[in-house]
Amino acid sequence: IQEPEEKKIALELLETEQAYVNRLHLLDQVFYTELMREAKNGKMVPEEVVKMIFSNISSIYQFHAKFFLPELQRRMEDWSCNPRIGDVIQKLAPFLKMYGEYVKNFDKAVELITVWSEKSPPFQELIADIQKRKVCANLTLQHHMLEPVQRIPRYELLLKDYVRKLPPKSPDRDDAEKALEMIFMVAKHSNAAIAEMERLQNLWVVYQRLGLEDDIVDPSNELIKEGPIQKISTRNNSTSEKYLFLFNNMLLYCVPKVIQMGAEFQVHLRINVDSMKVRELNDEQFPHTFLVSGKQRTLELQAR
């Protein structure tokens, strides 16, 4: 007899979970444990660094190995008399918030591996040694570490599929739909963490390009747009190349530096957005021009 579609998906969930637990075992019980052992014994790498690389992987591993996987296995063994997984996934969902921390830390972790591999040859050798083992399947530590980042979106996809294939009268319909809603919220939560991390990362790069003027560096700022602009000088009818950074709260009017020591730009003027006025000009000689005025002065600018 043909297996019902929803059972196939539930089985796929179980199989991928088994593989995932093996991957978590490798990260926590092999990489983390062995690097930690060496860190405690020698001068290879500080213990703190190893902890920072692996974040809360141990909690994630324990949760999946001791709770979620066994529950799923029981469900699938019982499938013929009790075809449901929705309730188990509802129990899983709140724990997936643990991933927020891991996901937020991911870029930092990868950077630490790179930095310490250069600093400490024994550290690099131990990682290379573990990577040669059969269990690593010729993949790097970084590659294995990406797996938890991708797991929640995978749950979401499988569960969406599962709900779609459930017969209308299935006893699991209510639970499965509720579970999907919960997973969706968690996925959104961890995406928000990634987006926030990327925003701060990009902001930091912009601050470095500006030479880190103290009063400009503020983590709550949001960069909206940046780009080159021509400043029109009405005195001698000429234009000169300038650069604008528009944040949610201020416009920075900058001059590109000829000699780039550290910073690319020098901030010539800051205009606060709440007191800023922008007016378009219809200038025959200079198309695409507009006036930007702040409290101190007004600039006549020409866009491309």
UniProtKB/TrEMBL annotation:
Highest taxon, organism lineage: Eukaryota
Keywords linked to the UniProt accession: Cytoplasm, Cytoskeleton, Metal-binding, Phosphoprotein, Repeat, Zinc, Zinc-finger
InterPro entries: DBL_dom_sf, DH_dom, FYVE_RhoGEF_PH, PH-like_dom_sf, PH_domain, SOS1_NGEF_PH
Localisation per UniProt entry: Cytoplasm, Cytoskeleton
Transcription regulation in keyword set: no
A molecular-function term among this protein's GO annotations: zinc ion binding
UniProt keyword annotation of Zinc present: yes
Domain DH: 5-193
Protein name: FGD2 protein
Native species: Bucorvus abyssinicus
